[in-house]
Amino acid sequence: MDLFLEQALNGLQSGFTLFMIAAGLTLIFGMMGVLNLAHGSLFMVGAYLAADVGSRTGSFELALLVGTVGAAVTGAVMEVLVIRPLYRRDHLDQVLATFAVVLIANQGVQMVWGRRPRTISRPEWLEGSVAVLPGVQYPIYRLAIILAGVFALIVLWFLIERTKIGMWIRAGNTNRELLGALGVNISLLFTLVFGIGAALAGFAGVVAAPYLTVESGMGDNFLILSFVVIVIGGIGSIKGAFIASLIVGLAQTYSHTYLPGVVGNLTDPSAAAAIGSSLASASIYLVMVIVLLVRPQGLYGAKLAG
Amino acid sequence: MSSGTSNGAVEAGMGPTLTGRGLDKHFGSLHVTRSIDIGVSSGEIHALIGPNGAGKTTLLAQLSGELASDGGTVHLNGDDITDVDLPGRVQLGVCRSFQTSSPFPDFTVRENVLLALMAPDPGIGLFTRAGVDRRRNEFAAQLLEQVGFRADPSTPVTELDHGATRQLEVAMVLASTPSILLLDEPMAGLAPGEVEGMSALFSRLRDDYGILLVEHDMDVVFSLADRVTVLSDGEIVATGAPAEIRADQRVQALYLRESDV
Amino acid sequence: MRTVDPDTSSARAHGVRRASTRPLILTAAVLALVGLSPPIADSLGMGYLQGSLTRVVILGMAAVALDFIVGYGGLISLGHALFVGLGSYTAGILIYNLSQGWGPGADQALVVWPLAAGVGALMGWGLGALALRTRGVYFIMVTLAFNQMMFFLLNSLEAYGGDDGVRLPSRNRLGPLSLDDDVVFFYVCFALLVLVVVGFNLLIRSRFGWVIRGARDNDRRMRAIGVRTRRYQLIAFVLAAAVAALAGALAVNESQFLSPGISHWTVSGELLVMVLVGGLGSLIGGVIGAGVLLVLEELAIDFTSDWQFYVGVGLILVLLVARRGVAGVILGRHRNV
Fold this sequence. Notes:
The structure holds three protein chains of three kinds. Chain A is mainly alpha-helical. Chain A contains eleven helices and two strands, in the order ααααββααααααα.
């Protein structure tokens, strides 16, 4: 039972991390219709910048700031240089262009920071565990991530539902031309939204870095999982992304916890860990399969015609 | 001839008959069609008119199977086809044309008609080059002539002018050997001579097909139609013979208010 | 707009458009060049390129299949490599277990290769049916997700080295013929490539091809003439998957090394790059693109280990400047239809 609870918290933490990435992705797609394969690279850039600053200054807080802002700036630059010329083009061009950015980013971080993975430690004031229930210890840092995720959710909600920019974003989701007619600077708005999404991804990258390996391509699996989140939750829906992120996070965590055990009973126990881990990674896509079978438009997506 | 009831529906048993009952459609909180009863059967031209936004195109989409209705049923000759999808209804003989011409841009005029003729089950035909079948080509030529198409059939459809595209649109519908035609403003944007030609065509087609015609051109409507139904705000305002409708005060008020003719 | 001159209308008969021969000439020329590349390379003292040339043929085959569904079908799949991986593991597992005495069939290309294609087709049927329940961007995301799923599944095969992979003892045999000689193996692969290119060229000109192309541009219209487009698209997807799986079986024979790397999603991306660079919607562009990318890589490897970076930059430039690709530029208005 303790393990179950501990893994539930891990699942939440994983889900919230995923949410921060998926939210930006769905915002960008919902508003601009652009599928951004390079979104995971922003996650990676945040982590790498943080690792660099963290090792130079020893300050996690500074690393967090630099990582988040750095990712935001990278995102904005990406938008202006690569995405903007391709807004009017079809999906294939956007896929290929953002794929190109992934290649550039994955190789770029190695060119700048070398091929060996980097590390960053948690800040001292977030070290240690706390008892969430009598007898159940849980790392404070992971709790902090969950809180950060909740904070991000609230900020996003507030931004979208209660501010002028959010109103423009919601309007832009359905009618881009209308925005232009209202005198809104669309280019600036798009860059801003891109930057917000990038900042979120970068933030998630910094925050997740202490317990991941900071290496080339680290963001790509998260990106693809974000796609699963969006398919399950429906495009453009923050609510859908949130719920789906938690589902995916929990499913991932539980399958990684229990599947190796199951596998070990069936095959050679020494290989069970590796096999179980890979199978667990594969199994999350089964959730997507089920959603596709039952409700292809996602939980909160619009019903597809015909 | 058919005798329309006050709700626009038709009694069964007069050749191929398409009937919609209680057709309802919402888009979010927008209630576009409200429990509409309507029908058309072979041997008549039933015109559907009304101001912009009345729900005419939506209704046509519900009848053709393109849009799933939120309520109501669609019957063909007494068989319930409400759950039959768009291709299925086409195979049963219910075909529609589109308000904005919608051919296949990668192909020529002739090839577009051929595609419609190959449908619904073109199969694979790996070792035969598509588009050279003699009988099909002859039939395509006949159809194009029937709709009054004058240009070179090997013109890519992207180079056609508006009038010719509308004619192609009708030819493609006819190629699907329908029994019921749902035509969405087929004459929109046609030159007067072309309008005459197409009106004459529909008049000839009337005997073999049931035609539900959405139109804005009142001269065409009142000269061609056997029955007219007026739609406004998702509901049927009036239905009956053309003369009745022309004299109907509610209809006049509607058009005066909308100043749309 | 052209109108019919009544005097010549009978000569035009029903307006049959004469197909341009330029695409066929280009296709034949490229195939001839590829086919002659081993002796040409040899005579230039570059016999060491043989492996690369075979890989051009193999990946070109997969890229041609991808161009069929992307360029002609409008189905942008970011999961093509999953079928390549599936095919390579089907063949690889059988070859690997030769020593365990899995029976005479396990090393016969005539058994293993169709089997790999069949497994690919089956998986294509299952995954395609699911993916085609979505449209547009969703479809792209779903194919990518399936790719990732397959990658992890293949990674979990500890018996075959997990993510490290495993060496294979030998290649398949073609009847009594051994395929260990690289040149012989090249020509066997090349023969299959020719078959694939011819096959897809016939297909795009057939009624099936017309449906696929029409549905790509106007799915609603195609359904409005009564065609169940999803069915046709699924068949196209299955065909492409089968060819990709065949390419995978050939690939594992070429390298004699079985590893999940070939099914990584970035390989799917690279295959798309080959299609674009070679020329989307030309079929032979897949081979051209494979040739360009693999040859450039071979040349660049000596200068830089950051090859991927330059591929990325180059790709963006191509997208902005020369989007039609090599075949697109050469063919101009005379597209391959």
